[in-house]
């Protein structure tokens, strides 16, 4: 005669054991994200994209300065954002490093912002705001080499960017992660908005070469003349 009580106990034991296995797998696999956790992380990611600055530079106030504005167009980009526009040389003055620090956060295995333009000597914080460990580094063949090692959630590490170049940023744990730090010796640069617009203020009067940088496309140059109190 079948003992229904024993069968019920066996089924209950199997269910508990199976649930325990799933829980162990979830705990062992850091990539496992429950729906609520995923939603929260996506909200943090979007908030970071809106709030974290993509330009770190000193404020320059000159009486006879002019402004360069424009919009970058690219047929191969639906949204021409994250293009760095800069004046290559503004001679006759040394510009101090900003006291303000930059931030490249880590959210949902994504660096935010993807592109940040800074003045030489800027300190950038790399907080791990994700739910997994990360290892932030720049490749050995780059112009600025560093490796911050693998570090836990909530830890913040810093790097001083003291070389004039574009520094690629990667994660040794997650190959899909990438970012770039563009370093300049003057504050006359900007990063385009989603619509491609940019604005560079307080430029000393004169003739300059305006250039662009993008991670996938060749640089474009344009000669501009800046006049006192005028917008070019």
Shape: globular
Total of DSSP H or I helical runs spanning 4+ residues: 2
Contiguous low-pLDDT stretches (5 residues minimum) are 7-23
Report the radius of gyration as a whole number of Å: 25 Å
Total strands: the figure is 17
| Protein structure class | alpha+beta
Quick structural summary:
The chain is 18% helix and 37% strand. The chain has helices at 4-28, 35-51; strands at 55-56, 66-71, 84-87, 102-103, 105-107, 110-112, 115-119, 122-127, 134-138, 146-151, 156-161, 166-171, 178-184, 189-191, 197-203, 206-213, 221-226.
Explain what this protein looks like in three dimensions.
By secondary structure, the chain is α+β, with helices and mostly antiparallel strands. The chain folds into 2 domains: 4-44; 54-226, Immunoglobulin-like (Sandwich). The chain has 2 helices and 17 strands. The chain has helices at 4-28, 35-51, and strands at 55-56, 66-71, 84-87, 102-103, 105-107, 110-112, 115-119, 122-127, 134-138, 146-151, 156-161, 166-171, 178-184, 189-191, 197-203, 206-213, 221-226. The strands form 5 sheets. It has a 6-stranded mixed beta sheet, with no helix packed on it. Strand 12 (166-171) and strand 13 form a beta hairpin. The chain starts with a helix and ends in a 6-residue tail after the last strand. Residues 7-23 have low confidence and may be disordered.
